[in-house]
C-alpha cells in the first residue's frame, strides 16, 4: 500500500497527514512546547527535531518509509511564482532559507525533502501563498514605489475552485469564479479561466478586515500614527496583523462566538459582524470588474464559512452576481493530497522552481 505524506509546520506544532489516494488515513498535530523549541540554537537544529517527530509519527502508525509514494509540503514565502505543483529542489530550498519573510511554513519543504530523499521519492509543494497571477493593470497601486502584490490563501482557493469545477463536470480553467477565503485573514480572488488575475493582499495589505487583521486602513492616518512617536514598529504591525479587525474591536478572534452573540442580539458584536460582512461583500462585488462581468459562481470558503447566518448575510449582498456556493473549512492537508493525486495520476506536470536573486 502506497501513502501520500503531507507536512505543514506551525510556530509551535507540525501537522502531518497520511492519505491513500484521496482517502484520509491519519491526520495528527504534533505539538511542540515552548521549552522544547527554546533549546535549539539554530534553525537547522529545530528542523532536525521536527523531522524526527514526523518520522516517529510514521513509526507509530507502522508506516515504513519505503511505502511513501510522494511527500507534500506546505509552500512557504519564497519568491512569487505561478500556480502549480513544484518539485522541491536545491533552488527552492535556498530561497526558503534566505527569504527575508520568516514563517514556519518555510520549513516544510526542507523536512519533506529530507524524508522523501530517504524514501527515494520526490517532495513537492503546491500553490503557496506567494502564487502571483495578477494582471498588469491589477498590479498598479497608485504609486510606482508600492506595487500591489499577490499574497493570499492560494492553496485552499485553487483546490476549492478545482473541486467545484469537477462537481460540474467542467475544467477549472474554463470557469470564471470569485472565491473568498474567510479565516484568520480574508482573501477575495478573481479566478479568470484558471488564473487569479486580481486578489487583495491578505497578509498585511488591503481588503476586508477579519478576526485578526485590519485590512485596508486610511493611509494618511497610518502614516501620522507611525511617526507620532507613540508606537513602535512592532506595535504598528500588530495593529494590522494579529491585533486588528475583530480583535481590535471586541478583544477576541473567536468568530463563531461573536456570530452567536450577534444573532442573540448583542449590539457590539452585531455591529462588528455586520461591518465585516459589508466589507467582504463589497470586495466580492468589486471582483466582477476583472472578470469582465462574466461570473460563473461566487464561492465562500474557510473556517468562517461554517457560519450559516454569516454566509447567509453575505449571500444576500452578492447573489445577484451568480449562484453562491459554500465550501466550509480550510483543509490544507486535503488540498495537498488533492494535488499529490493529480501528480500521481499524471493529470498535471510538476514544475521546477527557477533560481533568481531576491
UniProtKB/TrEMBL annotation:
GO MF entries: acetate kinase activity; ATP binding; butyrate kinase activity
Subcellular location(s) of the protein: Cytoplasm
Domain of life of the native organism: Bacteria
Any one annotated GO CC term: cytoplasm
Protein's GO biological process: acetate metabolic process
UniProt xrefs under PROSITE patterns: ACETATE_KINASE_1 (PS01075), ACETATE_KINASE_2 (PS01076)
Catalytic activity: butanoate + ATP = butanoyl phosphate + ADP
Enzyme Commission number(s): 2.7.2.7
Principal location: cytoplasm
Xref: Pfam families: Acetate_kinase (PF00871)
Family: Belongs to the acetokinase family.
Protein name according to UniProt: Probable butyrate kinase
Organism: Flammeovirga yaeyamensis
Amino acid at each position: 500500500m502506497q501513502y501520500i505524506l503531507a507536512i505543514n509546520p506551525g510556530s509551535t506544532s507540525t501537522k502531518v497527514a497520511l492519505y491513500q489516494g484521496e482517502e484520509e488515513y491519519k491526520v495528527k498535530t504534533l505539538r511542540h512546547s515552548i521549552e522544547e523549541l527554546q533549546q535549539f540554537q539554530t534553525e537547522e537544529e529545530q528542523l532536525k527535531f521536527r523531522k524526527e517527530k514526523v518520522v516517529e509519527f510514521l513509526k507509530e502508525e507502522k508506516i515504513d518509509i519505503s511505502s511513501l509514494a510522494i511527500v507534500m509540503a506546505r509552500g512557504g514565502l519564497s519568491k512569487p511564482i505561478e500556480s502549480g505543483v513544484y518539485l522541491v529542489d536545491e533552488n527552492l530550498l535556498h530561497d526558503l532559507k534566505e527569504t527575508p519573510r520568516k514563517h514556519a511554513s518555510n520549513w516544510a519543504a526542507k523536512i519533506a525533502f529530507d524524508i522523501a530523499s530517504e524514501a527515494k521519492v520526490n517532495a513537492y509543494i503546491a500553490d503557496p501563498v506567494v502564487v502571483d497571477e495578477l494582471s498588469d493593470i491589477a498590479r498598479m497601486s497608485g504609486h510606482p514605489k508600492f506595487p500591489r502584490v499577490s499574497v493570499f490563501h492560494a492553496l485552499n482557493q485553487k483546490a476549492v475552485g478545482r473541486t467545484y469545477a469537477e462537481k460540474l463536470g467542467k475544467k477549472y480553467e474554463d470557469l470564471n469564479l470569485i472565491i473568498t477565503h474567510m479565516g484568520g485573514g480574508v482573501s477575495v480572488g478573481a479566478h479568470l479561466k484558471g488564473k487569479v488575475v486580481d486578489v487583495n493582499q491578505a497578509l498585511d495589505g488591503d481588503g476586508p478586515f477579519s478576526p485578526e487583521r485590519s485590512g485596508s486602513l486610511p493611509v494618511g492616518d497610518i502614516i501620522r500614527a507611525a511617526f507620532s512617536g507613540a508606537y513602535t514598529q512592532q506595535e504598528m504591525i500588530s495593529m494590522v496583523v494579529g491585533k486588528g479587525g475583530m480583535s481590535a474591536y471586541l478583544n477576541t478572534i473567536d468568530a463563531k462566538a461573536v456570530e452567536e452573540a450577534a444573532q442573540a442580539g448583542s449590539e457590539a458584536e452585531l455591529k462588528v459582524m455586520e461591518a465585516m460582512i459589508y466589507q467582504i461583500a463589497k470586495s466580492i462585488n468589486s471582483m466582477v470588474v476583472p472578470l469582465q462581468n462574466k461570473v460563473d459562481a461566487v464561492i465562500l470558503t474557510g473556517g468562517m464559512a461554517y457560519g450559516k447566518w454569516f454566509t447567509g448575510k453575505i449571500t444576500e449582498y452578492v447573489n445577484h452576481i451568480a449562484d453562491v456556493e459554500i465550501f466550509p473549512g480550510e483543509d490544507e492537508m486535503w488540498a495537498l493530497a488533492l494535488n499529490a493525486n493529480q501528480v500521481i495520476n499524471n493529470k498535471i506536470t510538476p514544475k521546477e522552481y527557477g533560481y533568481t536573486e531576491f
